[in-house]
Amino acid sequence: MKVRADRLEKDIEEINRFNSTPDHGISRSTFTEEYIGAINYILKEIEKIGADVRIMRGGNLRARLKGTDNNAPAVMIGSHIDTVFKGGMFDGIVGTVTSLEVLRAISENKIPHKNPIDFVIFVEEDGSRFLSVLLGSRIWAGKIKDEDLSKILDKDEISYFEAMTKSGLVPQDESILDGKKIKAMIEPHIEQSRVLESRSIPIGIVEAIAGIKQLEVTIEGVSNHAGATPMNLRNDALCGAAEIILNSEKLASQNGTSVATVGHVEVSPGKNNIIPGKVILTLDIRDRDDVTLNEITNRIINSIGPTCNNRGLIYSIKQVSYTKPVLLSKRVVEVLENSAKKQGINTLKMVSGAVHDSSVVAELTNVGMIFVPSKDGRSHCPEEYTDLKYIEMAANILLESVLELSK
Ligand SMILES: [Zn+2]
Fold this sequence. Notes:
By secondary structure, this protein is α+β, with helices and mostly antiparallel strands.
């Protein structure tokens, strides 16, 4: 039994019709008209399959295909359908359409399975409306309290609770996601990097999701006249920042696994004829291993002091966030690899540098992820593209793995 590529293609097209920026990529913000349009399309498809649909805590959607033992823990599959503003057609959608097609294939072929199979759509994964990523899965997992849903606001000060209620995705089941009731979860997703493409491997099996440390570094020097101040009498905060940025790049490059990025720099006063007196920069440091993540962060932090001292600058460092790395399930990784092998599909074990709803679920139960190549590594932009043949492979691996885990 195989999935049908024509249906995967149709689902991708149909879901992406719901888009608030048709001339610039795809924009489908949580609980908007477009979001609900896409949900309604998916609900119609689920109705044809005959799965039981429930709106769960936080507005997350769950469609359950009953098994022969409905007290057995469920095998969960799925992803998200919200996008960043002017994003692409595939982020979240790959996991959504492959999971939907797997549900169809199992149902129409009447394949017996013991465990219930849950197809889920998590709300607000990309944080485009409420500016906080993995919001739906964190609410479902009980990491965010009920009363806080009225305090989480979008840019127009509409609360999560209000937006959810207005959209009609009112929870029918407020229970907190219970790891004991989920045997395993698998999320297919685009890679969002160039590793698979550069090695011509069609499928990635994710072993770990990288941890992230985010820092904010403030560097203060002296603003002064750009013409009247000789080079040896300057305390230029931006020159110090430049050295810090290049040192971070060098230190993160040394161990082959860490990555460090300065994605945002604020320069004051920011005038073409004044020496910069103050710079605030962000540092985003990631690694698959917690010890290495802390080690590399410390090395970068320790390099900032000497740089600033040499240049007569003062500095302060604030830790903005810290997410530990998540190890995915060895058992699920093995099942995914075997399924791929049986179908003659070449795979690569890899680390996800981006976080996913799977990171949240992995704290509760066994989780695995399937990656498909992103053309030129592009994502979160209109150029985001994955060839249908890879999506079909991912769906077939998902199908085989779900049947293995639910028999
Ligand atoms: Zn995503």
